[in-house]
């Protein structure tokens, strides 16, 4: 019998109200059932929201540094359990252990960063326009927050939200992706062990259209943070918009790495191998376009193909695996569909392009690392997010053209340029339309204390990470203190 996991609502582990469950399976070995999780209902969400609402009454009054202490303890527990959590994550999500350890580390960094932020959460004081009067403004929590997360960073993405959100005094109803519910439960266990009071975090598992939708529709939920596909993000935004809820959206990307003719090519190749095929291309910041200056195009493509062909596919738990499986069958079909589209559009598939099924690989959802050359900016494989190990190579003849190609897509999350020319690097940093630009580094590698998010269709103006996430998880309260002992009328009683 597979282990039966539960929801956590109002300080107690519990089944879904209808008793139904769904299976969590290993994408590298689909026959392996890792556990069953509650297929929850709207009434489970209702109970969770009520618990979060009740907990908010007292949690908001706990001093922020004290809230931060709980997060620090959570970070310390994560340090102790790092390898164990990484192994759980690799089993349910597929990426190699080196990467899942990094995912946990991002959670640890966020815990410690958020904990110290509890001692800052700076407000702003200004002079009053009137005598004997003081103006203060400070941050207050938003209230009950809904958190809807994807499967590609099962620890990091929930941590980016829960930790700063809790330090800021909010409470949560958390709905993780159906493909990675186990890591999410571990995160909740850690918060409980660290001393988080009942009701401050509630986890409700189940289908997005049921549990996720119920969170976005509940009138007591004040803010929703969503990371996932653009199509689902749009539904979430519309639902939240009906009740004028705050909503933070992190959605698609079509990130490019530009390589100029003066670049260090060894470094650029290392960067694109990591950016395009790390996490099997299933990162929102993955490199899915490579824009090469025509002078180094042929040499770089040739060397890249040779090196990419050596990447070892396999179970992320096995030593030496570079590239793990695709998360599920549906996602693999989608990748294969895009590869067929690329071939039909006339791009040249120089590597991969097929489902990988040799030997042990047939047990899971593997796909060959794939490279297309002769891609032009108008092709669908150059414009649409594929979310898999598929790289489209485009050619340019100048920096201006490279930037124009980069900016020709609807998305704007991450970007990268390899050049030794500081002037060109700075021009690119200024003109590339993206929330993140790396210079001489791959499109992936966000650090926990920096703002993370994208422009254009990638997001809706908010940022996760660093000090910027507190703008989402707090509201401003303005307080006027009049110690004149008389009625002073702003805008009227002035000289
Ligand atoms: P992906 O294509 O990455 O699996 P989605 O964007 O559909 O992803 O999913 C991201 C998260 O959004 C998941 O937790 C999923 O369950 C949830 N979700 C899916 N549909 C909805 C919806 N209609 N309302 C709210 N959340 C949803």
Question: Care to describe what's here?
Answer:
This protein is an alpha/beta fold. It contains 15 helices and 21 strands. The chain has helices at about 40-60, 65-80, 80-95, 95-115, 155-165, 180-195, 210-215, 230-240, 265-275, 295-310, 330-345, 380-385, 400-405, 420-430, 470-475, and strands at about 5-10, 10-15, 20-25, 30-40, 125, 135-140, 145-150, 170-175, 200-205, 220-225, 245-250, 255-260, 285-295, 350, 370-375, 390-395, 410, 415-420, 440, 455, 475-480. Strands 14-15-16-13-12-18-19 form a seven-stranded mixed sheet, with helices on both faces. Strands 9-8-7-10-11 form a five-stranded parallel sheet, with helices on both faces. A three-stranded antiparallel sheet has the order 5-6-21. β7, α5 (about 155-165) and β8 (about 170-175) form a beta-alpha-beta unit. α3 packs antiparallel against α6. The protein starts with 6 loop residues before the first strand and ends in a 13-residue tail after the last strand. About 50% of the residues are buried. The chain binds adenosine-5'-diphosphate. The site of adenosine-5'-diphosphate (ADP) has 16 residues, from α7 and α8.
What is the topology?
Layout: E1 7-9, E2 12-14, E3 21-26, E4 29-38, H1 42-59, H2 64-80, H3 82-93, H4 97-117, E5 124-127, E6 133-141, E7 144-148, H5 156-167, E8 171-175, H6 181-193, E9 201-203, H7 208-217, E10 221-227, H8 230-242, E11 246-250, E12 255-259, H9 265-277, E13 287-293, H10 294-308, H11 329-344, E14 348-351, E15 370-373, H12 380-383, E16 390-396, H13 399-406, E17 411-412, E18 415-418, H14 422-431, E19 438-439, E20 455-456, H15 469-473, E21 474-482
The chain binds adenosine-5'-diphosphate.
Adenosine-5'-diphosphate binds next to helix 7 and helix 8.
């Amino acid at each position: 019998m597979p282990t039966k996991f539960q929801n956590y609502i109002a300080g107690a582990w519990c089944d879904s109200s209808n008793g139904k469950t769904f299976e969590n399976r290993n994408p590298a070995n689909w026959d392996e059932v890792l556990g069953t999780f509650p297929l929850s209902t709207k009434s489970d969400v209702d109970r969770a929201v009520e618990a979060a609402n009740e907990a908010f009454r007292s949690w908001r009054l706990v001093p922020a540094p004290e809230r931060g202490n709980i997060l620090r303890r959570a970070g310390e527990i994560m340090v102790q359990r790092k390898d164990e959590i990484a192994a759980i994550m690799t089993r349910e999500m597929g990426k190699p252990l080196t990467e899942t350890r990094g995912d946990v580390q991002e959670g640890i960094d966020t815990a410690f960063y958020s904990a110290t932020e509890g001692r800052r959460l700076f407000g702003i004081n200004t002079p009053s326009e009137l005598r004997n009067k003081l103006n203060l403004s400070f941050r207050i929590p938003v209230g009950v927050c809904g958190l809807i997360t994807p499967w590609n960073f099962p620890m990091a993405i929930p941590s980016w939200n829960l930790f700063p959100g809790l330090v800021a005094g909010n409470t949560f109803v958390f709905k993780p992706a159906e493909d990675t519910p186990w890591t999410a439960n571990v995160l909740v266990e850690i918060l409980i062990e660290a001393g988080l009071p009942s009701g401050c975090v509630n986890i409700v598992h189940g289908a997005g259209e049921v549990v996720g939708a119920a969170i976005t529709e509940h009138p007591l939920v004040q803010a929703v943070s969503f990371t996932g596909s653009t199509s689902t993000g749009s539904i979430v935004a519309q639902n939240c918009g009906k009740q004028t809820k705050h909503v933070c959206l992190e959605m698609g990307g079509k990130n490019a790495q530009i390589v100029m003719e003066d670049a260090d090519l060894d470094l650029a190749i290392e960067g694109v191998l990591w950016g395009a095929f790390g996490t099997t291309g299933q990162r929102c910041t993955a490199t899915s376009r490579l824009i090469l200056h025509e002078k180094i195009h042929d040499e770089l493509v040739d060397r890249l193909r040779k090196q990419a062909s050596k990447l070892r596919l396999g179970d992320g738990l096995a030593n030496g695996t570079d590239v793990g499986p695709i998360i599920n069958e549906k996602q693999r079909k989608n990748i294969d569909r895009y590869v067929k589209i690329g071939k039909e559009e006339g791009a040249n598939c120089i590597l991969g392009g097929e489902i990988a099924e040799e030997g042990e690989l047939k047990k899971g959802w593997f796909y060959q690392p794939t490279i297309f050359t002769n891609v032009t900016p108008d092709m669908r494989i150059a414009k649409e997010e594929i979310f898999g190990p598929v790289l489209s190579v485009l050619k340019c003849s100048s920096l201006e053209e490279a930037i124009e190609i980069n900016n020709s897509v609807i998305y704007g999350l991450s970007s990268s340029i390899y050049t030794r020319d500081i002037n060109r690097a700075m021009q690119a940093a200024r003109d590339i339309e993206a929330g993140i630009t790396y210079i001489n580094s791959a499109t992936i590698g966000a650090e926990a204390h920096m703002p993370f998010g994208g422009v254009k269709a990638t997001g809706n103006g908010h940022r996760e990470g660093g000090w910027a996430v507190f703008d989402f998880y707090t509201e401003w309260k303005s307080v006027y203190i009049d110690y004149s002992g008389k009625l002073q009328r702003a805008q009227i009683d002035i000289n």
